[in-house]
UniProtKB/TrEMBL annotation:
Belongs to the ATG16 family. Residues 76-114, 146-180 form a coiled coil. CDD domains: Atg16_CCD (cd22887). Residues 38-69 are annotated as: Disordered. This is Autophagy protein Apg16. Residues 38-56 have a biased composition (Low complexity). It comes from Rasamsonia emersonii (strain ATCC 16479 / CBS 393.64 / IMI 116815).
Length: 199
């Protein structure tokens, strides 16, 4: 955004330098014009004086006008050349101003488009940040749930192992009781058999 300002200030600086460079010509033109005016006043005063003095001064006045006419012609030529250069400079500056204005308008349009794009991207970023925050919270909740499920699964596995150990122990105890009961019943049957032999 600073480029067009720099170009604008540079163009103003160039214009000031050109105008200052021509100050001498302007002053010379003013000086020549004043000298010519003075000579014309002196001529008119000399014409109003007595004829004897007018006749004697006429040759000097004519010589002064001829001498003043030549520098004035040169000054006018220089002023015309300076005017042409100034018009050329103005045309160049006008072209640069037109190009700068067009570039400025393009940059303004681009800036507006970029501003709208930035606003849209900021909105999208905010929306994505909200979604990401929601996903983070969801992941934290699922991680807690997973930890809870794993803890519960570990607890259930422990209870299952304890229940299996208890079942195995009860099966062994039951088998021992059955074995002892069968042994006891076997002894009773043998005793009854022995008793029946003596009777």
């Amino acid at each position: 955004m600073a480029n067009w300002r720099d170009d604008y200030y540079a163009a103003l600086g160039v214009r000031d330098e050109r105008e200052k460079a021509n100050i001498g010509l302007y002053d010379a033109y003013r000086t020549g014009a004043l000298a010519t005016a003075r000579q014309q006043v002196q001529s008119s005063e000399a014409a109003a004086a007595p004829s004897s003095s007018a006749t004697s001064k006429r040759g000097a006045t004519t010589g002064q006008q001829q001498d003043a006419g030549k520098p004035l012609h040169e000054v006018l030529a220089a002023v015309r050349a300076d005017l042409t250069a100034a018009q050329r400079s103005r045309s160049e500056l006008q072209d640069r101003l037109t190009r700068t204005t067009e570039e400025l308008e393009k940059l303004k349009k681009k800036t507006q488009q970029d501003g709208r794009r930035i606003t849209a991207l900021e909105g999208e970023r905010h929306h994505l940040q909200l979604r990401l925050r929601d996903r983070d919270e969801e992941l934290r909740g699922k991680a807690k749930l997973l930890d809870s499920v794993q803890d519960e699964l570990a607890s259930l596995n422990l209870q299952l192992n304890m229940a299996e150990e208890r079942s195995s122990r009860l099966q062994r105890e039951n088998q021992e009781l059955i074995d002892r009961w069968m042994a006891h019943k076997g002894k009773e049957a043998e005793a009854m058999n022995e008793a029946s032999k003596f009777s």
